[in-house]
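In this supplementary section we document a worked example of the pipeline. Step one takes a protein sequence of length 441 as its only input; no multiple sequence alignment statistics are reported here. Step two produces a three-dimensional model, which step three serialises into structure tokens for compact storage. The input and output of this example are shown verbatim.
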Amino acid sequence: MNESQARLPREPADFFTKPFARFLQIETASAGALLAVTLCAVILANSPWSTPFLDFWQMPLGVSIGYIEFTRSLQHWVNDALMTLFFFIVALELKREMVVGELRNPRMAALSLAAALGGMIVPATLYYILARGTQGAHGWGTVMATDTAFVIGCLAVLGARIPLSLRLFLLSLAIFDDIGAILVVAIGYGETLNWQALGLTAAGIALVPAMTWMGIRSIPVYFIVGGLIWLALDASGIHPTLAGVILGLLTPARGWVSDSRLHAILHRVVAHPPSKDWSGDTSDRHDLQRANIATREAFSPVERLEILLHPWVAFIIMPLFALANAGIPISLEKLDTALASAIIAGLVVGKPVGVVLFSFLAVKLHLAQRPPDMNWGLLVGGGLLTGIGFTMSLFIAGLAYGPALLNSAKIGILVASSLAGICGLLLLLWQTRHFSLHVKG
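The serialised model returned by step three reads:
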């Protein structure tokens, strides 16, 4: 038999077969799309089309049946409903890394977790100190999160000179950051709690592992249950995007069909003599159907959902979010400089200080392990990149600030994210200059 016949036909998607490599590839390309869309949003918001552009996102959209009305603005649907899928993907990646990826090593996971905690606590504290007593003091959560796509995009600019350990560290840090951010949103920026809706939410969440235990593997069924959980959370007073995190962490990270069982099933298929007519109620037909199910279920639900949803989230949902939220009419006359300065200080100074300080303490206390090819200089450069808050900071800002302060906050976020990205890239370039010369030599 020709060896090439034993392989599947090559497709463009074959370049992304490894889940982690695929995740990095998509995040890198997504950063370019986000940057382009952000520039478009800023230009449109400061053009003659500013009013219709901004009014478009406030257009009401929903359903009304008798006394029951569920209507939100288009921006609200993007920020609350579509962003739930973003947090779902983030939680899926965290679950996969903790079960079968690099975060299986507790001490490696502890380094990213410690850095993420420092990157949330220190900037929030610095922001609160600077903004205390002002109208913007409640916005401390704005400086706590990291934009995963832009961080990975910055690392892609540096290419192979950056060690894989730094990419893994920053990716897992950003994921922990995003999980922390949505918890902050749920706790710090929620509304008055509706306990009946919370009870329905708890029942829906308990139903998910019960369905898994019963052997229900239909993805559409889980999406229906997830939608009901989202509605219950929305009615409870807790921000509904938390549903994405919970459902992502509940998703199984291992396949239903083991490798040995898959090989046994496939062996039965290939044991049948070649035939041009695979039809009818025959044993070879049943074996082929069984092989079709087995090959699909050999992939874990986490992998299948990442492959299905990640491109949509990266290239549709996140650019839509940027388009809906990054449109800032720039007016220095109405700029709250104290608020913008507090955000810039939190992201550009507080973030890297917190990441490096907590990482150092975790290593010195033997709670975590630093990879040997990731020196402290690289970690400082990576810490600076975590100050790129952008989409996550804009997301929290939309909940934390009223209309009078929101534009000032957005300007602070854009300036801070730009400074953090530039400073982080320059430091990493300087840190890896010897490696670059060595490669050229």
